[in-house]
Sequence to fold (465 residues):
Amino acid sequence: HTEMEKAKITHHQSHCLALAYPTQGHINPMLQFSKRLEQKGVKVTLVTTKSICKTIHFGCLTSIPITFETISDGYDEGGLEDVESIQAYLESFRLVGSQTLMELLKKISRSGFPVDCIVYDAFLPWALDVGKKFGLKGAVFFTQSCAVGTILYHIHKGLLKVPLLESEILLPGLPSLEPSDMPSYVYDLESYPAVFKLLVDQFSNINEADWILCNTYYELEKEVVDWMMKIWPLRTIGPSIPSTYLDKRLEDDKEYGFSIFNPNVDACIKWLNERSKGSVVYVSFGSLAVLDVEQMEELAWGLKKSNCHFLWVVRKSQEAKLPKGFLDETSEKGLVVSWCPQMEVLAHKAIGCFITHCGWNSTLEALSLGVAMVAMPQWTDQSTNAKYIMDVWKLGIKAPTNEKGIVKREAIEYCIREIMEGERGKEKIFNADRWRILAKKAVDEGGSSDMNIEEFVTKLNLIKA
Ligand code: UDX
Fold:
């Protein structure tokens, strides 16, 4: 270590290794949480896999004072194209990941500033076993809502049988749910058995974790958080969104967070700056969801029919599904980009509503930046998030599907008009703003999430002392 590095080390007290599951929707919240820990004086080493690092857009990380390290999932050379099945990938990640995590911990230890605690994504329970071998503390980090966590916990314990038999699901702290409100794996066990196992296994060794952290905020999920806190030392630490956006200090230096894809920042913001307040429909389905050709067409023509301005993120891999002639016909009204700086977009005053797949990060970002939503859930936890958006938090509507599960263009147009023009829209926008204020309060000094992070850091420092 240089003298400067040593000075920095003494300034920090504890050292956390934050291990993220290697996808956009998991690395970003872990990175944002790491930044909050750093702000409170903890040193953080953020770790993900070598294979995903090949695709990371590093420009977004230059302003972040966090150390990066990698471990291996067994696919370093060929990358993720070589993965034969999800099951094979997860198995390889568990074996090779455990081994390379041990090596990394030894390497860090030799550097003179050993790790005190592993903060690990709930998808990687084996990281806790590795940490315990080294005598470290362990904090599991959930990147889904507490409601979804509770559903999966009940399945794990055998308290909720799958495939579901009942038509109304009643669980503590949750509203009455229909089967279609459940995470997709619960009613569609066959499609992705390895993912279902991954989700349920999040709870396999949870009783050995020293902390259970959830990327949500207390005010948002009070009932279910209260219930979970009866069984576990659960703490809410979210929303994992930089204060620059929550405070709408948009003229400040930007923090784009982590991105797998390269965002068209200037093009998006310049275009939004030219639009009037609340006039733009923002459309994005996150980093993984794949719409089929028919759904893409219906969405495209629905946007056109609405006659609103729109900013639509269509990832490179999905571009060929855009209907012929669509870009030319809508060039006056719309901007289609392959990736955008989503937090900055949602915080922009031109945005009037968000057509979303309801991934947990997108949901939290819209809630925290006060944007009303049109929910078009695709799979995994998104149907449960959509139920909450519509019926619990009441800041959005769920787009109706036909018998084939497609949202037709008329439905798209109707939902956009409801939010942008209707009386119902005014109520949703009002509620969205309420959630924004509560989100900001939660992470501001003395707020519920801030206090929980403070408590976590204090306890870590006490152990260290
Ligand atoms: C996945 C799952 O789908 C989600 O349900 C789960 O809870 C977490 O992991 P993903 O599908 O990618 O993630 O969606 P989401 O959780 O919404 O995360 C997407 C992230 O990418 C958000 O943080 C969003 O801000 C960011 N994003 C998206 C961009 O930065 N630019 C874009 O153009 C689109």
About this structure: The chain is about 45% helix and 15% strand. The pocket of uridine-5'-diphosphate-xylopyranose is lined by residues 23-26, 28, 143-144, 259, 263, 284, 286-289, 313, 339-340, 342-343, 359-362, 365, 380-382 (CB under 6 Å).
